[in-house]
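Final report, closing paragraph on structural work. Over the funding period we assembled a curated collection of sequence-structure pairs, and we close with a single example.
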Amino acid sequence: MEELTLLLKTCKEHKNPNVYLAVYLAVYLGVLTAARATMILNIRKKDINVKTHEIKLNNYKGDKKYRLTLNRESIEWLDKKFLQHINPDDYLIRSTNKHYLPETPQPLSEMPDAIYEIMDELFNQDLNKQNNSDREDVINFHSIRRTVATNLAEQGTSIYDIMVLLDHSSIKQNKKIDAYTIATERLLLMYEELSNNPKPIKKAQTESEKIEKITDKLFEELTELEETKKLKKYSENTK
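Its predicted structure, as stored:
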């Protein structure tokens, strides 16, 4: 979490006001929602409901939309600093080039270069991006998503709740399936995400211990769900 705080602080202190508006907001939204870069780049003002504190996100990878509830402090800050000054169809993340003014609102195709320049300065100076082994350790925007998930898991947040945040479910909404199966699939997907490529911004010395804790939590929750299913089945059989 210290690294996320440092990243936010560095983006906020950028001397160029045009760059600050784009990079700080992008990273801030990344920390709040743990969303992918493409999803954040496509957030419009009309996707944020100030009254209900909800933000609508488009999961292009899964071809669906979902909503997250943000805390009141975050919503009020977004409203005061940004939402009140733009039109409903405007995208929140804008170009850092003040001369780039499209006739109609258009999302950026990629995050501003300034974000990656800041990340390189803070976290990637000792890494060679041309080296395959080092390339896996390079911190990029997606690292924010992984770091948020890892921090939540370390703090004891239910992996099921983390899966909901990351919107990793691959089950079709129109497919009738019991809650146990949904929870199990989400737990397994979360484990796969964190164990196959655990690259949080915080390069902990005990990376394997992190995965071990997450694995233990995974099986603990799976066991609990399994017992719940058995009890439900027993109850149905004894009626």
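Confidence is low (pLDDT under 50) at residues 170-184, 198-208. The beta strands are 48-49, 54-59, 64-69. We thank the funder for supporting this effort.
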